[in-house]
Records
---
Amino acid sequence: MERPRSDDLRETPLFTPASPMLLAASEGEGGFHAPTVADFFPPAIFFEGTVFEFNRVMLIRVIAAVVLLTVFVIAARRAKLVPGRFQNVVEMILDFVRNAIAIEVLGEKNGRKYFFLLATIFCTVLVMNITSVVPFLNLAGTSVIGLPIVLAAWTYVMYLGAGVKAQGFGGFLKSSLFPPGVPKVLYLLLTPIEFLQVFVLRPATLVIRLLANMVAGHLMLAICFTATSFFLFDSAGAMKLFGAGTLVAGFAFFLFEVFVAALQAYVFAILTAVYLNMSIEAEH
Amino acid sequence: MSSPLDSSAAVMAAEETQQNILLPHPPDIIWSLVIVVIIGLVFYKYALPKFQAVLDERTAKIEGGLAKAEQAQEEAAAALEEYHQQLAEARADAAKTREEARAEGTAIVAELRSKAQEEAGRIVETAHRQIEAERQTAAVSLRAEVGALATELASKIVGESLEDSARQSRVVDRFLDELEASQTASATTSAGKEG
């Protein structure tokens, strides 16, 4: 996390009332570089200034995508009736998506129909999240808003499309904006809420939930490891002991980040399935 | 310079700069879209169909195998049942045959016994009859010879022939009568002993 801009720390959103205490410890030696939001906006590598500007985050995403596709294409090419160990692992992931997400939420028929969508979304989110704990990458592909937006937009289009296809345009609008079994007066209150819910909040929460989790995870990890580095190499005497504490905390956050990466992939996929189900079934 | 108010002002300021994490940049969106489209294409067109085909084939194989095993088991059960039935039939047949043979044997023995008894009775009868005939023959020849012998013997003993033939005949008759009486008596006793 080497950055040339440790001086304008105060101008970043992460600068909180608690920050001065950390700074007080670091300012003397000038060795502590707290992680900032700037981590997510690295300088361009290619095409600077154009719409194809390519930076470190894009590179991480490309690497993750290449790894994901390599694994799946090799596994698919070698796919046999009696699976080997490697095929078993890939099949375990797909089986999980099919049984625990697709069929569990959407039922047998629709679960099979939307299995490809859910598997693609789950695997993409998982591999893009997991880069946050991969050495030298150290940043989740989903911790910059573009990718969550693209994935949520895909989900958005799919569940709106599924609703229109299943109930017709009017039927879908009616069943989502005017939920049955409610006194007519309440529609004054309910319809705007339902409208917000279906057309704005669902995709927005998908984006923000994933993004915020991965941003927070990266910041926690970065704080723990930069603090460890600072305590061990830049502080004097007993202060070095804090380094052990922050190192342990960093390792704990590393494990936690792995868990969060998998959990957020699961949450994204299962919410996609739930939204699809709500669109397909008239009553919800 | 670092009061909470200032820092919140800094946040507000930062949100207007390029570094707001909630504001997407066109390159970010474009590259994300490219990556998602590529992943989606490979997954939809190649990887997932391949896996689904393999998984479906495996399911079919397993189901087919199970059905086949079930069928084989049913067949085996049927064969066992048939075998048991045949065994029972064979046992019943054997028992019946044995019973029949025993009955037949008994009948044969009984028949043979009755035949033998009949035969024995007949033999005894024949023997009785023969004996009777021989006795009568003997009696007739005795009756013829004993008179002459006795007369001859008596004339030899007396030394003179008896001139009166009438008297002679009377004497012989009386003698024979006596003889016959004693003989009948002895024959009756001997016949009683035999019966």
---
Amino acid sequence: MKRVLSNKWNIMVFVLPTVLFFTYIVIFPIFKTLWYSLLNEIPAKVGDQSHVVWLDNFIKMFTPGRRNSFPGAVGNSLLYAVLSIFVQLPFSMFIALLLANGVKGESFYRNVFFIPVVISSVVVSLLWGRLYKSLLPQMFESFGWTIPKNGFLGNETTKIWFSFLPSLWQYVGYHMLLMYGALKSIPDDIIEAATVDGASGAKLAFRIQIPMIKPMLKVCLSFSLIGSFKLFDTPWVLLERSNMDLPALSMYVEMFSNHKYSYASAQAIFIVLECLVFTVLLNIVFKDRDERRLARGKGAARA
Amino acid sequence: MKKKSVAGTILKQLFLILWVFLCLFPLYWMVTMSLKDTNEIFGTNMVGLPTQWLWGNYANAWGSGGRVSNYMLNSVIDTFATLIGTSFLGYMSAYGLLRMRWRGQKAVFTYILMGMMIPMHAALYPLTEILMSLTKTHWALIIPYVAFNIPITILILSGFIANIPYEMEEAACIDGSGIYRTAFTIILPMMVPALITAAIFVFLQVWNELLLASLFTTDSVRTLTVGIKQMSGQYQTDYGSMGAGLVIATLPTLILYMCMSGQVQKSLIAGAVKG
């Protein structure tokens, strides 16, 4: 059998098509983007090196200027990340805890809360766009609140908040489900022991349940962070093309409207680097914590 | 064991019902919008049930003005072809990478999984160069969809394939079955649940994809997401038909979810690492 499973020809037939296809469509373009980001324009001839400007595009990206909206775009994506981490995730956690600790209708609620996740973000955005134009103003009026000038999405100060809202709303169910699954997999005897010791409600949640699902929190956090750097669909549909307020949108506009391919490539590379840096940071933070806890645990055991 | 106050329980239920309302309201709004005329949608009857149920909106969106039927067909073709591609290539390579024994298999496995970390944005312009000549065909979307979903498919399959004992192959080998027969008639049937899990994840990714679809499709191969996005501009005066288009575009995923909500949830949990 070993001979069959390590036959070189068989292995090649099974693996090589996928590896070549994947390399040509996914990996090769990424290196090409990296190369383009170092040029000032895409040369007509492959291998022509007279256009190399090294890091000029990246410097230009962060040179302050009235017409340079990229630093602001990055700032906005960080704002989305903050909202996602400090509002969306705690809210999802709250719901997950409520459901996991047992309420009537647990699985009904879980199934309903997940519905927005499976709907296309285009549909979600178009629906919210309509809400902002018809129902929400009416509601504001009947409550006697002032509607932002030029509408919710036309107003410079409010548009960023209202374009974030739909995707924050949409993915609450996803985070809730991930956390709920993790909470449910905590062994019952641990919860019981804690309950016997008098822990309940918030104390049980913060001392036992949340610390125990840290690995899943890491998944949720990286989903939030990477999602905010790549955020594209919802604001693109909601705000039409008139803006460059987020990194991915800015890249899209530079590339396909302004045809500055190499500059847009640099922005694409920046987005990738941002995702990688934050993934690594997240790993370091969570690893450090675990190690410290482990060290503390050992110290306690020795004492 | 636990003291449960009545007030607490009621408060909990109220809160959860409020969120149910907030989750479902946009859907309710979409469905009622699809059955109203523009006057009702703007003003006279925004939130109520339609006074007259205008099923004609659906006919309009589906056929004459809206061409949603076309978009739907294109989305179905692209999604279906992508699923065949990811399942076939994913299974073949998962088998080769995780079942067969050769030097460097770990390295190749890691190489492919690393592709998961990389957002499509990063490959956009070079992809344009490769695919621009194909935008009149379905291949312009199927090719990148398959390629970008191979890593997650392999990852989901890898979790399952590790649980199948090697004795299966040994027995097959003793019976004189060759590698292809072993892989496709003995191991593959056992991998069907894993393939379904991966396929549901990929289905939702591809069905809802907007960025590539808006770049690499010309009119005749336009998919639903791009189609309804365009309709929202085109139908400035006919919001009922736009609503109908939204409902039609959402139905397939909603039906899938209603029929197998547990399986869909499992798939999306399995794919969560994709970021």
